[in-house]
Amino acid sequence: MWHLWQALYPGDALSLQGALRDMLRALFRCDFSVLRLYAAPPGPRDPLAPAPPAAANLTTASIFGWRTNKVICSSPLCPDAPRSREEIGLVDGAACEETCPPRTLRELEAECRKYPVVVIKDVRLLELGALLPLLRDPGLNLRVVQLFRDPRAVHNSRLKARQALLRESIQVLRSRHRAEPRGPPRHQQQQLLLPPGLLGGGRAPQPQHRAEFFLGGALEVICQAWLRDLLLARRAPAWLRRRYTQLRYEDLVREPRAELRRLLRFAGLPVPPALETFVLNMTRGAAYSSDRPFLISARDAREAIHAWRERLSRQQVRQVEAACGEAMSLLAYPLSGGDDR
């Protein structure tokens, strides 16, 4: 999905939902040729001209987080892989990069079709409603697990990667005028989310304030999308309830085994004991934070649940709660109550 967002920048997030849905449909069917549509550099191009090298030569070495992808970094696509595909655990990215040569999309498609289940994690789909055509498609037999997390923890996590998320936050923020207005009047919400200096007067805002403004505004849009999804799920027909479930991050890290069993039961899949052990170990690491927010590693996720209390200011907490209060209420996240820290 990253390729699509980059290629269609600065298109707003809501406008991209249809393209995301179509890409998901293709990926679930192991048709990876759709990725070539978005591999070309942004900008106008003659549709009759040959595809640029970036699209024509697209390989496994630039998609699906390939360095830590079990399918790409194991046999048969990688005969010299240090670990077998059946072994449950994290992939050594450095070892994969050293021993696994790039493969064509056709080879990856052929391998994909051997699997009875295809799992896709996506963080750019803004509307559950966009998936309804896929959920109705009997050929896909799709199940959707929607993961939620305390918005204050989300904001804290995103602030650590503010520069890396800036472009995407702008795309999400540009969707605000298209979303249904809820909660306080729009001008009140903007005043809550704008840092000092962005309303005019005084010195120009510092770059970190600009980045925080875009991230905060994007979080408001995300929370309103959550609210629409939660309300849709509450009045969903029986067929949709059978194919859709919700998961709170906090419940997963507190009871990883129980939640894993519930999710796999929902998907109609067995629960390998080794997978239970892996999930438990991943949520019980020695530390709960990292200076590299996109690094996949074992952490003490129970401590990470409340890290926002130490790192967000009182004003930041108020801003998030003002923007996300309705969704937080439906998800049973209590407000801070204005406590001093």
Give a brief description:
This protein is mainly alpha-helical. It has helices spanning 2-7, 17-28, 53-56, 93-99, 105-112, 132-135, 151-160, 166-173, 186-193, 207-234, 238-241, 249-254, 256-267, 273-282, 301-304, 307-311, 314-330; strands at residues 144-148, 244-248.
Written overview of the protein:
This protein is mainly α. It folds into two domains: 2-42 and 51-124, no CATH class; 145-330, no CATH class. The chain is built from 17 helices and two strands. It has helices at 2-7, 17-28, 53-56, 93-99, 105-112, 132-135, 151-160, 166-173, 186-193, 207-234, 238-241, 249-254, 256-267, 273-282, 301-304, 307-311, 314-330; strands at 144-148, 244-248. The protein has a two-stranded parallel sheet with strand order 1-2. The two termini are 39 Å apart. Residues 44-53 and 181-205 have low confidence and may be disordered.
Keywords:
2 domains; EC 2.8.2.-; mainly alpha; chondroitin 6-sulfotransferase activity; P-loop_NTPase; 341 residues; 2 strands; Sulfotransferase_dom; transferase; two-stranded parallel sheet; globular; 3% strand
Beta-strand fraction estimate: under 5%
Distance between the termini: 39 Å
Largest sheet, in brief, is: 2 strands, parallel
What does the average pLDDT come to?
84
Keywords: Transferase
Protein name: Sulfotransferase
GO molecular function, one term: N-acetylglucosamine 6-O-sulfotransferase activity
InterPro entries: Gal/GlcNAc/GalNAc_ST (IPR051135), P-loop_NTPase (IPR027417), Sulfotransferase_dom (IPR000863)
